[in-house]
Amino acid sequence: MKDIKLSLALAVYNEEKNIGRCLEVVKGWVDEIVVVDGSSIDKTREIGKKLGAMVYKTTNKPIFHINKQMAIDKCRGDWILQLDADEIVSEELKKEILQAIKPQTSNIKHFVAYQIPRKNFLLGRWLSKGGQYPDYVTRLFRKGKAYLPCKSVHEKMAVPSGEVGQLKGHLLHYPYPSFAEYLVKFNRYTSLTAEEYLENPKIRPNIWGYIKSEIKGTNAFLLRYIRHKGFIDGFPGLVFALFSGLHYPVAFIKYWEKKKNK
Questions:
Q1: Is residue 47 within 8 Å of residue 16, measured between CB atoms?
Q2: SS (H, E, C) 34-60
């Protein structure tokens, strides 16, 4: 059997509009593609199989990192590249990845994982400010050297031991093809935050929680729009900063509603 040097790990749910574009870019230079699908009701699985992926069907978990970790665990490569279906590897990044996974000589520093800068797009524009760039994410790592804790939707990849390097090439991230899709994800993430409030007493808001959430939301808006110069990104920068601030009061309102109905 052919040695597998580089595996691609992908977790998906109803990504028929994105998965083809994502996989077409990596096809031919990754040694295997592992896709864990959360029971999509569109053509996601069919497209993945057509492009050579090994596709595994499972349930769609509220914390989607569980499915991502499942995909990582199924990879057989010495190195694993973990992507989301709405991300595209740039040509510059491809060259860096292939260079990084080559056998290294003793006089070159050995890294167990690499952070990759990501360009996030909203309303057709790359958000260069607002704290959204370079948005480093750990996505390339040696098998067994990194994992997702699977406790929160906002968590980062954990690298328990070993040095982490940085690449310069970009991941191009298109999470919101339309504002309607942005609102769908905004609704999902605020609901998950409300659930975290219910389940974790340490972060659960008290009687002054709504006032605090308003203050926290205002701070989040000002931080992204003023301090991190989100205004430079025009109207998309304003929208991102505004909804970043709204996350906290909306999550509190949902928490309050869930608490009353419990």
A1: yes
A2: EEEECCCCCCHHHHHHHCCCEEEECCC
* Rounded CA separation 42/121 (Å): 24
- How many other C-beta atoms lie within 10 A of the C-beta of residue 176? 22
Select 6-175's CATH number: 3.90.870.40, 3.40.50.10610, 3.40.50.300, 3.90.550.10: 3.90.550.10
For residue 165, the one-letter residue type is: G
Residue 15: name the closest of 79, 87, 109, 120 by CA: 87
Residue ranges of domains in the chain: 6-175, 178-261
CA distance 66 to 71: 9
Distance set, CA 57 to CA 3, 10, 11 (Å): 25, 12, 10
4 Rama class: left (phi>0) / alpha (psi -120 to 50) / beta: beta
Task: Tell me which DSSP letter residue 162 carries.
Answer: S
Statement: residue 120 has pLDDT above 60? yes
Facing residues of 83 across strands?
A: 10
Which region, left, alpha or beta, applies to residue 41 given φ > 0 means left and ψ of -120 to 50 means alpha? alpha
pLDDT higher than 80, residue 2:
no
Distance CA 56, CA 35 (A): 6
DSSP strand pairing (6-12 vs 79-83): parallel
Phi first, then psi: give them for residue 162, nearest 5 degrees. 100, 160
Over residues 99-112, the pLDDT tens digits come to 999 876 545 568 99
